[in-house]
Amino acid sequence: MKTLISVVGTTGIGKTKLAIDLARQFNTEIISCDSRQFFSEMKIGTAAPTEEELSQAKHHFIGQLSVKDYYSIGQFEHDSLELLDQLFKKYDIVIMVGGSMMYEKAVIEGLNDLPEANDENQEKLEAIWQTEGIEKLQEMLKDLDPEYYENVDIHNQRRLLRAIDIIWQTGKTYSENISHDKNPRNFQTIRIGIEAPRETIYERINLRVDKMMENGLLNEAKNLDDLRKSQEGRTLASLNTVGYSELFKYFDGEWDLDFAVSEIKKNSRRFAKRQLTWYRKEENIHYLQVGYSEKDFNGLIEFINEQTKK
Fold it and tell me: Which NCBIfam families match (predicted)?
């Protein structure tokens, strides 16, 4: 039985380092399931692995798309499974890492057979989004399915449109629609999490945002501003990403820079809270503490080796 090790945890917790440590330990490669690190124009604001980190282990699904490209979770599931088939011919163990919960779920469990988008529903929802903003869609989803609202990327209007459409079509919450059994996988998954007290997580997020600004996040966002203002840009879910949408309001003169940065921190902390809510419900995650020692890491390797022998 081949093994996928899935490294999970909140934003800013240190998943990239652990994934690289594991890839080097098992001499294997890494699949990213961070849906925003797919975009080449968003390296700084999504904390994509640096060139130095990429040189330490081969990564897949990092910067392979433009923000202009449409790429669904279904496409990611298909492409990841195809890649895993290839990688498992070379390796007994492959690493996956990322904090996009539904993308991880798509790979390790599979997506449900949901109905196709309903054109009439989509038109209604698009009109609501255009006239009342993404906040209205967020409010609608929170009323219809509070459980999914706590887990979804609420800044991704496509995800909101899709969930509300499915709820309207089926008369069931989106959470109910995706709770059924999926296609079995021909590999086992070992899920490894990194955890820390919430105050530590929030402090790490605040420091990371400051570091992103030092590393050029403002210029990175500015390079996307013209596209954002175009007709094409108005429909791109990729541009409704924490770290960029706040700076766009600074460019528009709605906020000053200090406030925009504080909002990036606040929205990043909110996303981390949703991640914590999601992972707390999962019962099959083996946890390391943030800032793990060499002894902790060696204990993790022993645990993985035991699991792969079962």
Answer: miaA
